[in-house]
Design goal:
With 300 residues, the protein is mainly α. Helix content is 76%, strand content 0%. The chain contains ten helices and no strands. It is globular and about 70 Å long.
């Protein structure tokens, strides 16, 4: 039995969007390589710097592997390969997207400030959510004996999505919304209390990047859920992995690089990096106050 015209059309859309997502990721990498060298490689080595580099190059390698598979260069008609590849891409998507949120959280909030307790709660929430997604998806893929349709004809791993699998993304919507609301609240207080210390351009960049990252995150979640529900039996279900994930990666990396490149009246680039890292290290000190705590103490 040969693939239907609707199936082949969906496969063409899937390949096109995967190619577009990978192209955007590689193009943005080339555009921002100089910023990476200046603001990341020249900065002191910290856990945040290592996390950024792992996410940046892990996303590039993972999406390149997906692009090669979508081009029909890896499967070679092997059901076993496709089963392993489906597990890899699912775990890669979950780890990549949620790790970007954690990176943006610790890097961004170290500059614009918030309560440490709230930050730690959100970080552990994202980590717990990653573990839950990995366990559930791995068990489902390994126990489901997934069969990939028309593998000998199309040389691309195409399966069907289980019903109600989109429910796993409800937690991501909630966490992202909470993160955005608390971020904007913190930025509002930041601009009110410290507008005389920092130029308006700094606040503009912080607000702009926070909104853009939130929109990119919501778009990624919405496209993934929509493709999983509307195209569960069509190759288009892969749009979340092939297109939305690289766009979110670009948005997160851009936000971090923009924060690294901010020039304020107080700090040079290297000193700003050290100050941010010093604030991040304060998370491990139980009695060290955060920016919001300092503001409240001053009011008292």
């Amino acid at each position: 039995m040969s693939p239907s015209p609707q199936f082949m059309e969906g496969l063409w859309v899937r390949k096109s969007f995967s190619a577009a997502g990978h192209t955007v990721l590689v193009y943005d990498y080339l555009l921002t390589f100089r910023d990476e060298y200046v603001y990341i490689w020249k900065a002191p080595w910290t856990s945040v710097k290592i996390l950024f580099l792992l996410i940046r190059y892990g996303s590039l390698i993972g999406q390149t592997a997906i692009r090669l598979e979508e081009a029909g260069l890896l499967a070679h008609g092997s059901q076993k390969f496709c089963q392993h590849f489906a597990t890899f891409t699912t775990c890669f998507m979950f780890v990549s997207t949620e790790s970007i949120h954690i990176l943006v959280l610790v890097r961004g909030w170290a500059i614009w400030g918030t309560r440490k307790r709230v930050t730690k709660i959100l970080i552990w929430s994202y980590l717990s959510y990653i573990v839950m997604l990995l366990v559930c998806s791995s068990r489902s893929l390994l126990a489901g004996n997934v069969q990939f349709s028309f593998l000998d004809e199309i040389h691309v791993c195409v399966a069907t999505m289980p019903k109600l699998v989109w429910l796993v993304y409800v937690g991501s919507f909630i966490l992202d919304a909470v993160l955005f609301v608390l971020t904007m609240r913190s930025l509002q207080r930041y601009s009110r209390e410290f507008h005389q210390l920092y130029p308006s351009s700094l606040l503009h960049v912080l607000v702009r990047d926070a909104i853009l990252f939130f929109l990119a995150s919501m778009f990624s979640n919405a496209l993934t859920v929509a493709s999983w529900t509307a195209y569960g039996n069509n190759p288009k279900y892969f749009l979340g992995k092939g297109f939305a994930t690289p766009l979110l990666s670009v948005a997160g990396q851009r936000l971090v690089l923009n924060l690294r490149g901010l020039q304020t009246r107080t700090y040079a680039t290297r000193d700003l990096s050290r100050e941010v890292d010093r604030q991040l290290q304060a998370f491990d000190e139980p009695d060290a106050p955060g920016l919001d705590d300092i503001v409240e103490e001053e009011r008292e």
